[in-house]
């Protein structure tokens, strides 16, 4: 909130008061093939998104609204930012995850946020850490 200072002898004209911290973050996004969809694909890195959008290994490109990532951010923060900025409510979330992630993290994310996430599907690459490699061997988990 910005307030005007009415004290004529004051050295400052306006005063700014923070009412609330802003929890949303910036992210990279690519558009999918279906504008009216509520399906979003998330990853940790932008190159995973590029490869999935170009090669369509999951065979979902024509049913996705957006592909998004936010470097070094938690997926739940990214989901909340997308819901806020893109106005996609109760999205069907698909995550391209690194193999080292704990499955309990995804279970808890879905369990405690089912009011904002309709479906959570996580893909792992069994043959490598990331999805931007030549050989991708997919493992799918639905929460």
Describe this structure in words.
With 143 residues, this protein is of the alpha/beta class. The protein has one domain (22-142): Dna Topoisomerase Vi A Subunit, Chain: A, domain 2 (3-Layer(aba) Sandwich), CATH 3.40.1360. The protein contains 3 helices and 8 strands; from the N terminus they run ββββαβαβαββ. It has helices spanning 46-55, 75-86, 103-112; strands at 2-4, 14-16, 28-31, 39-43, 66-69, 92-97, 119-125, 138-142. Strands 3-5-4-6-7-8 form a 6-stranded mixed sheet, sandwiched between helices. β6 (92-97), α3 (103-112) and β7 (119-125) form a beta-alpha-beta unit. It is elongated and about 70 Å long. The N and C termini lie far apart (41 Å). The model has no long low-confidence stretch (mean pLDDT 88).
| Biggest sheet, spatial arrangement of strands | 3-5-4-6-7-8
Give the terminus-to-terminus CA distance.
41 Å
Average pLDDT, rounded to a whole number, is: 88
| Fraction of helical residues | 10-25%
Keywords:
143 residues, Dna Topoisomerase Vi A Subunit, Chain: A, domain 2, two-stranded antiparallel sheet, 22% helix, 26% strand
